[in-house]
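Minutes, structural biology subgroup

Action item carried over from last meeting: produce the structure token record for Probable cGMP 3',5'-cyclic phosphodiesterase subunit delta (Meganyctiphanes norvegica). EB confirmed the sequence was re-checked against the source entry. Recorded below for completeness.
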Amino acid sequence: IGTEGEGYECLYIVLPINLSTVYHIVVRMPSKAEDILLGFKINWMNLRDADSGKVLWQGTEDFTDPEKEHEARVPRKILKCRAVSREISFSSIQAMDKFRLEQRVYFKDRMLEEWFFEFGTVIPNSTNTWQSLIEAAPESQMMPAQVLSGNVVIETQFFDDELLVSTSKVRLFYV
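Output recorded by EB:
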């Protein structure tokens, strides 16, 4: 099962049936990152045209599951926006002192962009809304939707300060 220390706790049990037998059981305890992830959920997310405020896409899938590659179908007109406002509603059972995200945008496994976002303190047993502004690349550097669709993956790493809580991957399809 494992050894004592580093996320393992040792339990000694003496059963009244046979007082001369001591059972040594080692139980794996979740790490702090696992504790945070177990109690962390994205409730919903939306993307808006930052200039008009119009919601262009909204989803309720919890994108925090690191075990699968998620998919999002986003309207292709989002690529014409000067800037996009991303709003996330999330809940956390655990407190976090310095909640932050690192996002990397990959096109056919090659990183194109990297963004860093800081939220700060998360109160335990809370639901929070976080809005961020993402500015578009110059139009001359934009690829057409039909080239990007299905070939773009956004990798998001969730951190509490320097502690990596989870990594999520979302493949984008422009419809």
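Discussion: The chain has two domains: 1-30, 33-174.
Next step: EB to file the record with the rest of the batch.
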